[in-house]
Design a protein that fits this description.
single chain; alpha/beta; Rossmann fold; six-stranded mixed sheet; 10 strands
Length: 328
């Protein structure tokens, strides 16, 4: 039976937790984490907030298939497949890259969830967006009713979900934070927070190498989301750290590995090497160069993604150093 259009997909509100040991280590006065890894659906993550809005549109439009796309370790793809199952819909996905010999991490979950996967070969962001439209056209030609969702759910509808999430955060604090730090993939989460948070809050997005035009897209989406929801116009520029993604989307970087280890060993907080590890690396860099200050409140927005830790390419990131030999 298909769930009703307004059916909730996420466990909300998500917790807001202190990170005192990590804050002390980094010299941040009050460091908190917003646990959107705890949203519940298919191991959790931020995309389910967007999918609640997007799926409501899809069901209202009479769709019977969700169509989207992403990289091989896309959290958005995993959660779209899960949302489709909850709502009794089919799911087709354009996946950048070639079919691997062995599915690991998020890709293994995509297969478990039963999504129809269409591998595009190497594809950049806008080639992948075009592939989503081609898959949707093929689905329609086969007599189905597709609803196309852009990479990361980064439409104005999806962005509105994070303006609402900003209201949720405000209700968990006595005063607005000084900084919010978040991973920037397709830019929708950053844009929603920019639209919804108090204008004095500085939102630092950390580019993970997904989208080439974040500096233009994030303010544009933020303005559109604010206008749709009757909010005040947000800042016209976005703060984005472009120095953390290394050789590209999903690449292993030394500062992300350090950030993963810091979060895990100081707080027992598990991040991932594709998204949140790089976002935490941006937070660490900003703390070390004094941008975050020592007296304010900083919120790290945990967008989920732990399944990527189990992707084959990251299997040796945390190997212990070799034992010293007899001549060392």
């Amino acid at each position: 039976m298909t769930a009703p259009p307004g059916a909730a997909l996420a466990h909300l509100p998500t917790p807001l937790e202190p990170l005192p040991r990590l804050g002390d280590r980094l010299g941040v006065g009050r460091l908190l984490v917003k646990r959107d890894d705890c949203t519940g659906l298919a191991l959790g993550g931020n995309k389910v907030r967007k999918l609640e809005h997007l799926c409501r549109e899809a069901v209202a439009a009479g769709a019977d298939v969700l169509v989207t796309g992403g990289g091989p370790q896309s959290n958005h793809v995993r959660m779209t497949a899960a949302a489709a199952n909850r709502l009794g819909l089919a799911c087709h996905v354009a996946l950048a890259g070639d079919r691997p010999d062995v599915a690991t991490g998020n890709l293994l979950l995509d297969q478990l969830l039963g999504a129809d996967l269409h591998y595009t070969g190497p594809a950049d962001y806008y080639e992948l967006e075009a592939a989503i439209e081609r898959v949707a056209a093929d689905v329609a030609a086969a007599g189905r009713r597709p609803f196309a969702i852009p990479v990361g759910g980064a439409s104005v509808t999806g962005v509105v979900a994070y303006a609402d999430a900003a209201d949720e955060l405000a209700g968990q604090l006595d005063a607005p934070p000084d900084w919010v730090v978040v991973a920037d993939g397709s830019g929708g989460t950053h844009a929603g927070l920019l639209a919804g948070l108090h204008p004095a809050v500085r939102v630092l997005g950390v580019d993970v190498g997904t989208r080439p035009d974040l500096d233009a897209v994030v303010p544009r989406l933020a303005a559109a989301a604010a206008a749709r929801t009757g909010r005040a116009a947000p800042p016209t520029a976005a703060l984005i750290d472009h120095d953390r993604y290394g050789d590209g989307y999903g690449a292993v970087t030394a500062d992300a590995v350090e950030a993963l280890e810091l979060a895990a060993r100081q707080e027992g907080l598990v991040l991932d090497p594709v998204y949140t590890g790089k976002a935490m690396a941006g937070l660490v860099a900003a703390a070390r160069d004094g941008r975050l200050g020592r007296d304010g409140t900083v919120v790290f927005w945990h967008t989920g993604g732990a399944p990527a830790l189990f992707a084959a390419r990251y299997a040796h990131c945390f190997d212990p150093p070799p034992a010293p030999g007899p001549d060392t």
